[in-house]
Design goal:
The chain is an all-beta fold. It contains no helices and eleven strands. The strands form two sheets. Strands 2, 4, 5, 6, 9, 10 and 11 form a seven-stranded mixed sheet that branches.
Length: 123
């Protein structure tokens, strides 16, 4: 059993900042990639940023230069620093992890999602 626990969402003004955290816990052998996706009302879920265990990052064009993803190797936790927030960044942000789970002597690839944290940016 693997669980992702997110924190750090909330309300910010346009131009402000928020920091999201996501901690993975449970029977984890190794994490391959962690990242953040977001889903606004009436819209499809979209990638925000991902980071691999080797610290290779990937960002959506809409957040490049404003958001920074970090972490993974330390305490299986990933962070998303969001600066220069815009109203269009408002959404539920969901943490995602692709990992190898361990159960006894067996291992299997897993993809796990957090429950999401709401980010609201006012203009």
């Amino acid at each position: 059993q693997v669980e992702l626990v997110e924190s750090g969402g909330g309300l910010a003004q346009a131009g402000g900042s928020l920091r999201l955290s996501c901690a993975a816990s449970g029977s984890i052998f190794a994490i391959t990639t962690m990242g953040w996706y977001r889903q606004a009302p009436g819209k499809q879920r979209e990638l925000v940023a991902t980071i691999t265990s080797g610290r290779i990052t990937n960002y959506a064009d809409s957040v490049k230069g404003r958001f920074t993803i970090s972490g993974v190797s330390v305490r299986n936790t990933v962070y998303l620093q969001m600066n220069s927030l815009k109203p269009e960044d408002s959404a539920v942000y969901l943490c995602n992890a692709r990992l190898v789970g361990a159960q006894g002597s067996s291992f299997r690839n897993l993809e796990v999602w957090g429950q999401g944290t709401l980010v609201t940016v006012s203009s």
